[in-house]
Design brief:
Number of domains: 1
Helix content: 25-40%
CATH superfamily: Vaccinia Virus protein VP39
Shape: globular
CATH topology: Rossmann fold
Number of helices: 7
Radius of gyration: 18 Å
Largest sheet: 7 strands, mixed
Order of helices and strands: HEEHEHEHEHEHEEEEEEHEE
Number of strands: 14
CATH class: Alpha Beta
């Protein structure tokens, strides 16, 4: 990726960018947009997530999908590592708006769409060499359907991270806990109730769900950042964009 716009940002541009950041009432990711100008997110993915999520050191030539992108930290990181195309999706309009603030500041070509994982299809999105599925699974009412959707457009590898649990009494038995009304979440100093959490699975259950929809070579990556898995499709191929003369309108 070329030198970010943030590296040569003019004072007036910096003031505009600072104003855009301050107008937003909430930020999830902390992202450095210019020297000494960092979005005020409560999650620092650079230190808390990136070292533990299994991203390849280089993504040269890859077509990458970032599901649940929030402000786009991992989308921009994939681009920085050489991805040829990065598509991001999020179901919250505010997240896509903040993504686009960061995209402009970083002079990025990554593209964010306002949609959700259930809407993913080969016809509309094409196929991807790498899918990043971080912090989404436990927010879904229908996790297996979501994994089926991802499998249908993955032609390489999936990286998955999710909140999970382990219980020595269960051992290697697949199990998930259902929370009909959500759980407490958020930063330690400002806890809040998150009604969007439904299924919290143990590692064996996540492994078995991935195998159930067709993924192979399923590997759990140990670390302090929740349950992290790497998997691939049985017959890898090169990621391809959708046919724009056919997708998705006819």
């Amino acid at each position: 990726m070329s030198e970010p716009l943030s590296a040569r940002i003019e004072p007036s541009q910096r003031q505009w960018l600072q104003a855009q950041i301050e107008r937003e009432g909430y930020w999830f990711h902390r992202i450095e947009l210019a020297p000494d100008l960092i979005t005020p997110g409560w999650s620092d993915p650079l230190t808390q997530k990136l070292p533990f999520f299994g991203l390849p050191e280089r993504m040269d030539g890859m077509r990458v999908l970032d599901v649940g992108c929030a402000e786009g930290f991992f989308s921009f990181e994939a681009e920085r590592r050489g991805a040829r195309e990065v598509i991001a999706i999020d179901s919250f309009p505010d997240s896509v708006r903040r993504f686009n603030i960061c995209r402009a500041a970083l002079d990025s070509r990554a593209t964010a769409f306002l949609t959700n994982v259930y809407d993913l299809s080969l016809r509309a999105f094409g196929t991807f060499d790498l899918i990043m599925f971080f912090g989404v699974l436990y927010h879904l009412r229908n996790p297996i359907l979501a994994l089926e959707k991802l499998f249908s457009i993955c032609c390489g590898r999936l990286l998955l991270q999710t909140h999970g649990f382990e219980d020595p009494a269960i051992g290697d038995q697949s199990m998930a806990r259902f929370y009909p009304f959500g759980i407490e979440s958020g930063p330690p100093e400002k806890r809040s109730w998150d009604p969007t959490v439904f299924w919290v699975a143990n590692g064996a259950c996540i492994r078995d769900m991935l195998a159930h929809v067709g993924f192979t070579d399923i590997e759990q990556i140990p670390g302090p950042a929740g349950h992290v898995f790497r998997a691939r499709v049985p017959t890898p191929s090169a990621g391809t964009p959708p046919d724009q003369t056919k997708a998705p309108w006819n």
